[in-house]
Known about the structure:
The complex is a heterodimer.
Chain A: E1 2-3, H1 12-16, E2 19-24, H2 28-40, E3 47-51, H3 57-62, H4 64-81, H5 96-119, E4 125-129, E5 132-136, E6 139-142, E7 145-154, E8 158-160, E9 186-190, H6 194-205, E10 209-214, H7 225-237, E11 241-244, E12 248-254, E13 257-262, E14 266-270, E15 272-275, E16 279-281, E17 312-314, H8 326-340, E18 354-356, E19 361-366, H9 369-375, E20 380-385, H10 390-394, E21 401-406, E22 412-419, H11 422-425, H12 427-434, H13 439-443, H14 454-461
Parallel strand pairs in A: 2-3, 2-7, 3-4, 7-17, 9-10, 9-15, 10-11
Antiparallel strand pairs in A: 5-6, 6-7, 8-16, 12-13, 13-14, 18-19, 19-22, 20-21, 21-22
Helix pairs in contact in A: 2-8, 4-5, 4-6
Chain B: E1 2-10, H1 15-26, E2 31-37, E3 42-48, H2 53-57, E4 67-75
Antiparallel strand pairs in B: 1-3, 1-4, 2-3
Amino acid sequence: xxxxxxxxxxxxxxxxxxxxxxxxxxxxAGFAAAIKGxxxxxxxMKIALIGYGPLGGTCVNxxxxxxxxxxxxxxxxxxxxxxxxxxxxxxxxxxxxEFMESLNNFVSTEREGKYTNVISNxxxxxxxxxLAKFIDKNTVSVNGKEIKAFNFLISTGSRTxxxxxxxxxxxxxxxxxxxxxxxxxxxxxxxxxEVALEMAYAFSNFGSEVHIxxxxxxxxxxxxxxxNSELIEALRSNGINFHLGVNFHEIKEENRxxxxxxxxxxxxxxxxxxxxxxxxxxxxxxxxxxxxxxxxNGIIVDDTLxxxxxxxxxxxxxxxxxxxxxxxxxxxxxxxxxxxxGGGRTVNMNEIPWVVFTEPNVASVGYTEYELKKKNxxxxxRTVDLKNVVKANILKSANGLAKIIADRDxxxxxxxxxxxxxxxxxxxxxxxxxxxxxxxxxxxxxHVFPTVGESIxxxxxxxxxxxxxxxCCMD
Amino acid sequence: xxxxxxxxxxxxxxxxCVAHVSKGLNExxxxxxxxxxxxxxxxxxxxxxxIKPEDLTNLNVFKGKYKAQTRSVKND
Lengths: 475, 76
Ligand SMILES: Cc1cc2nc3c(=O)[nH]c(=O)nc-3n(C[C@H](O)[C@H](O)[C@H](O)COP(=O)(O)OP(=O)(O)OC[C@H]3O[C@@H](n4cnc5c(N)ncnc54)[C@H](O)[C@@H]3O)c2cc1C
């Protein structure tokens, strides 16, 4: 249809662009972007979704889903074999291969339901299996096939960083631990971030003797000391042994048993070693230079997720950013596509909740004291021991704390909880921060009694009164 | 001086959509000529030189069902 014009325009620019969007990586970020792009364009955006390994990437296959299944089952086993209440006697046994088969079946079902079946509804999305490599700013090659696109999203995720330790071979990571058939009697976990702590916790619940080794003398990098000590204490009482600040000398194996030699001690008789020493972005092999994209411990993006090439965005674990989360990857995938189509959305890392699914959970959103001190930002903080929270006592799980950080205008800028079920209620902290509410707003909101979530309100009350002189449920 | 801006338009499904998008573009300040193709999902817009591509992609007509993305800008 022409309006006013007389000469028919030439369309060569469009013809050489085979796809409107090519997405490299079919994990949480890639899927979210592909679906959002389709929705925003009435399925008219022609999309190439490129990846390798099972659809869905890390979270559903080897990350959040199997790890949370493992943790919940292990808690169930521990509670069944060690009931917490007086007068209740029980015992439990485990058929580990049968349990692992059920875990892997669950993963397959979730993958089918949330990824394989979902993507089959989109005729505008073509799947390409293989490793993508940029040839130039508009072209990637996948198994020798050239795919041209106008827009690109890189969402290639991350993988376990493997430290250089002499003799470190024949180990598990969170990629292959799901094939383990025999419950290890004794397992060494290298690392002390969230993945290491969660896996250690699950194996310890199942009855394995668990030893955590870490080069740093801290757990959970960047977290405040009170949170870390509370968690270490709880995990120690769960039976986990911590060896922090160690210098690895070598790892030896004899008769299928592994020995870890540090500069000061030797630890023997491990049936398995799990390496969980942090994660690094998957960018090698992408030939980012050919596309004009800068990378430094992750792809560098501006706050709209645009890389150093304005037609190429990046989202999820491959981005240089402090948090690596499924929820963040999904959100960023969506935002990247919206921004490609003219949006100007950004992600505020201070509103992203983050959880370690041990028991107690560590759940956190917003600034830590550590960050505020580093940035020289004025704040005030109140911390409440969970022994002040009736539901935590009922659950016999009062090892923990709730901590609220407020700025000088009383606005809440950080909420951190070590406590049972904290993953389920940290969202309150997200709303408080996102909506710039003060501790007075928090106190004014009636919470359910008895819940562990009440701990957030009680920490808020600690700003205005002595909570030891307060009766139950008063404002 | 004028320039030619090629836009990829998403969301058009019928001639009414084409008319709607064309009207939106035509009514924009500085636009002198508009061609919209339903089959290719594109619009080719001739506009005064001071018009920026974002002035077109941010038009109200692209805030709902239709989305526009700049594909090329050439000085005439
Ligand atoms: C054990 C474990 C437990 C976790 N638990 C949680 C949790 O409870 N909650 C939570 O929010 N997060 C959790 N996470 C983090 C979460 O899994 C990740 O943040 C999330 O999966 C990242 O998604 P992504 O799309 O960025 O990357 P991925 O899901 O890793 O997807 C990347 C994809 O890119 C592909 N790829 C890589 N390079 C190329 C290439 N060159 N060409 C083509 N394809 C390529 C990969 O094959 C993969 O399919 C956990 C992670 C682990 C390891």
